[in-house]
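Minutes, structural biology subgroup

Action item carried over from last meeting: produce the structure token record for Large ribosomal subunit protein uL29 (Bacteroides reticulotermitis). EB confirmed the sequence was re-checked against the source entry. Recorded below for completeness.
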Amino acid sequence: MKIAEIKELTTSDLVERVEAETIGYNQMVINHAISPMENPAQIKQLRRTIARMKTELRERELNNK
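Output recorded by EB:
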């Protein structure tokens, strides 16, 4: 997910997405530990996407104060 797409989301949608992506990330890591994935770079990509979303949430929080 690109930064422009993240900025278009509402705050409540963004919070929901972060929770859903985090659950998916945790499941992906567990599955990879059990049996290796074809493309383990997906884990890195998802982790960075979650970080981008959390950064946007924090930025919005600071701007509202």
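Discussion: The radius of gyration is 14 Å.
Next step: EB to file the record with the rest of the batch.
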